[in-house]
């Protein structure tokens, strides 16, 4: 092949790769962000999830649901915090509340291997099975077991705070999600809006009443980064890793922390677990090259057992509020207790 032809083939190959990247990469990331409820940039608005598990009153259309099924939907809804009408929507779409005569409803399996009134694959049912009627058996063909199992499965997949995501995981079709929610609305008279949180919950914005202005400023900066991506080695402002987020937050008040988690761990004054306060740093034995005395991950306490943290690139949200009371939690430090930081804070206060 001539050099000119080789050059032409190479150029076409590069163009093809670029086309695939331009077309499919945005689609891939866009779909995943919609699926998991993430993808908001710049710490966008929070979603109020306080009423996500509310149990709405039944409307006229709910009378079409068999009485025994309606009772099971409502009981499971209350127990698992899933709106009962969503469970009823799943039951309606799957098997018309067990009344379908199709294969795999009362016995056997359908063409996809699903069985029972809530149409579980055997492996999925075994993983989440609930003995709803306490008869010592977990039977996917018994609505008393299948319906609470469906509630447990939806909850495992993010319901009620991320309802559309959870329903999609039940049956991987957005048309299915819309159909289930259409029935859920009908059963309560149309006045029903499922919650689809983006990982930024409004209740996390409330800090303990005794938090001082300095710590509020530090935490406020970190909280404003919620929804941005995690990128290892990034220093902001568009992306952060765990330690750069902490460093940037403290920098807002004129305090300079070391850059890496390994350096930040010995930098602050050690605080006993249970004595942590907002603004303290919590460290974890997580990541390559880490150990119980050499943690590789860090977050910042905001109160109530929660931290603001840049978790990982695949986490949803990548930067958000999570609990720090986990098995790999190593310890706590308080940078503001350092003598040089105390002096610096006093100097800054005197200038104001």
UniProtKB/TrEMBL annotation:
GO terms (BP aspect): proteolysis
Annotated keywords: Hydrolase, Protease, Thiol protease
Segments forming domain NlpC/P60: 212-336
Record's keyword annotation contains Protease: yes
Pfam family, one: SLT_2
Gene Ontology MF: a single term: cysteine-type peptidase activity
PANTHER family recorded: NLP_P60 DOMAIN-CONTAINING PROTEIN-RELATED (PTHR47359:SF3), PEPTIDOGLYCAN DL-ENDOPEPTIDASE CWLO (PTHR47359)
The family this protein is said to belong to: Belongs to the peptidase C40 family.
Protein name: Cell wall-associated NlpC family hydrolase
Species of provenance: Actinomadura coerulea
């Amino acid at each position: 092949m001539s050099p000119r032809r080789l050059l032409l083939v190479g150029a076409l190959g590069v163009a093809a790769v670029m086309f695939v990247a331009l077309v499919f990469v945005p689609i891939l990331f866009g779909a995943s962000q919609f699926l998991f409820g993430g993808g908001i940039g710049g710490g966008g608005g929070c979603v109020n999830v306080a009423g996500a598990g509310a149990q709405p009153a039944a409307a006229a259309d709910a009378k079409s649901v068999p009485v025994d099924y309606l009772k099971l939907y409502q009981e499971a809804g209350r127990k698992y915090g899933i709106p009962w009408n969503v469970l009823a929507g799943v039951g309606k779409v799957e098997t018309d509340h067990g009344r379908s005569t199709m294969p795999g409803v009362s016995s056997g399996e359908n063409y996809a291997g699903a069985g029972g009134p809530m149409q579980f694959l055997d492996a999925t049912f075994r993983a989440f099975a609930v003995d709803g009627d306490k008869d010592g058996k977990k039977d996917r063909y018994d609505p008393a077991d299948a319906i609470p199992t469906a509630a447990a499965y939806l909850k495992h997949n993010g319901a009620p705070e991320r309802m559309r995501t959870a329903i999609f995981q039940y049956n991987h079709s957005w048309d299915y999600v819309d159909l289930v929610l259409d029935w859920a609305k009908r059963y309560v008279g149309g006045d029903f809006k499922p919650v689809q949180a983006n990982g930024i919950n409004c209740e996390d914005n409330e800090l303990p009443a005794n938090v001082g202005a300095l710590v509020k400023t530090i935490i406020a900066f970190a909280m404003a980064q919620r929804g941005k991506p995690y990128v290892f080695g990034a220093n902001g402002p568009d992306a952060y890793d765990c330690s750069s987020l902490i460093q940037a937050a403290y920098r807002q008040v004129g305090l300079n922390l070391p850059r890496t988690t390994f350096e930040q761990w010995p930098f602050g004054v050690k605080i006993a677990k249970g004595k942590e306060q907002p603004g303290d740093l919590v460290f974890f034995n997580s990541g390559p090259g880490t150990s119980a005395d050499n943690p590789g991950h860090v977050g910042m306490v905001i109160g109530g057992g929660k931290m603001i943290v840049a978790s990982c690139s695949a986490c949803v949200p990548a930067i958000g509020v999570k609990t720090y009371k986990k098995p790999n939690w190593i310890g706590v430090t308080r940078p503001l207790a350092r003598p040089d930081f105390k002096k610096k804070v006093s100097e800054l206060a005197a200038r104001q």
